[in-house]
Each structure stands twice: as C-alpha cells, then as structure tokens.
Amino acid sequence: MRILITAHSGCNNTKENSFEHIYSAIESNVDIIEIDIDISNDNILVLSHDPFIFEKSGHFEKTSNISSEILKSNGIITLESVLKKINMTIPLNLDLKSIEVIEPTIKLLKRLNYTNNIIFSGCNSDWVTKIRSLSDEYGVFLNSQEFENLAKENYKNFIRTFIKTAIKTGAIGLNLNYRLCSKELVYQAHLNGLFVQAWTVDKEQDMKNLIKMNVDGITTHNPLLLKKVDDFCE
C-alpha cells in the first residue's frame, strides 16, 4: 500500500509558509501540502508558525500581536490568497496554531465554498471538539502532544487513550511524533477505523521503519526522498 506523502512547510529547502514552498511541493507531486495557520491582530488568517520572527532584527513576536499589514510587508501571505490559488486542486493540511483560528478558518472556507481537500491538524481534543461543533465537512486529526507524558509512563495505556479520545471527539485519525509510533499503535488505530499520520520524518531509515509499520501517511521536509523510499518498499 502506497503511503500518503505530506510536504511539510518549507519542504525542499524553501521558505516556510510561502508560495515557493507550496509550488515546490506541487512540483514534487506530493499528496498533501501542510501550511501553518495563525491570525493577525486585525483578524486576518495568515500562514505563520508562531512566534513570528522578523528576519532583519531577529525579534520574536506572537503573530496575533502583529497587524496583517506588517506581516504582509515581511513576506507573510494570507490563507485566503492560498485557497484562491489552489482552489481545491490538491489537499491542504491546515496546521492550526491556536484555538482562536478555528472559527474564522471554517467561516473563510465556507465563504469560498471550499468544501473539499481540507484536513485540520495541530489539534488537541478540545480543538477537535470545537471543529466538530462548527462543521462535519472536514477531516480532523488528533495530535499526540497531550498524551506524550502518558506514553512515557505506560505505552499501552497511551495507545488506548489516544485512540479512545480520537473516536470520542470525532477525529478521523491520529497525527503523532514518529518516535511515538509503533506497529501495535497502527494496528489498533486501523482496527478502530482511524488513519495514522507520522511527523516529521526526514531520515531514510526512519521512513523505512514507518512504512513497515503500515502508517497511512508521513509528513516530511524531503518528499522526493520519501517517494524513492516508498517506491523501493512497495
């Protein structure tokens, strides 16, 4: 079974959250493109991985404290501009950076009639619940972070709790740090009808290990390497 390849923001040594990164991912023939979604202090949805770093000064600031005008003047692009360019031609993984972006993102998608090829990630259980209360049109992955301490204490309980929470909240799958992944986790997730997406995987041996575990998808900065590895493992 061929895995789904998600191009991480900044793939192929491009600038993160830029049209350069998006077009490079498309040229690499990936299945999904990941972009980070945040919001400016004047409520414009932008592609940014919080905190925002001013390139010239190196100053750090929360994206939500900066105006969209200043962000745009520093090379930040808006989610609306990306959606209009892509126009549902390739799936987008919207990696949400705060709970505050959920409602305006869904409103924007509906205003643009963007009904297909959207996946939400970066979500803890409360975020998944909020998304599901607003819309059932889009796939949502439950992230592993809130369960990572449990993974260290009792891995079997981690698997059980992670899967149970995903089902309860209405997530379609698990999105986890690849170091937490195992064949048993993937097996149990699949038994319960859940997808498994591992991030962020850039080394060849790690890619091979995850493919052997039968994960459904891998997020990587190096999609061309992953395509070669996946072809070799088929």
In CATH, what is the homologous superfamily? Phosphatidylinositol (PI) phosphodiesterase
| Overall geometric form | globular
Total helices: the number is 10
Our Rg estimate from Cα atoms comes to 17 Å
**CATH fold type:** TIM Barrel
Name the CATH class.
Alpha Beta
Low-confidence stretches: none
What fraction, in percent, of the residue positions are helical? 25-40%
| Beta fraction | 15-25%
> What is the end-to-end distance?
7 Å
Largest sheet: 8 strands, parallel, barrel
Tally of individual domains: 1
Number of strands: 11
| Class by SSE composition | alpha/beta
Written as H for each helix and E for each strand, in order along the chain, the element string is EHEEEEHHEHEHEHHEHEHEH
What's the CATH architecture name?
Alpha-Beta Barrel
Kindly state the mean pLDDT as a whole number? 95
Strands of the widest sheet, in order across it, are 1-2-6-7-8-9-10-11
Structure described in brief:
With 234 residues, the protein is an alpha/beta fold.
Describe, in plain words, how this protein is organized in 3D.
This protein is α/β, with parallel strands linked by helices and 234 residues long. The chain has a single domain (4-233), classed as Alpha-Beta Barrel (TIM Barrel), CATH 3.20.20.190. 40% of the residues lie in helices and 21% in strands. The chain has an eight-stranded parallel β-barrel with strand order 1-2-6-7-8-9-10-11, surrounded by five helices. The protein has a two-stranded antiparallel sheet with strand order 4-5. Helix 9 packs across helix 10.
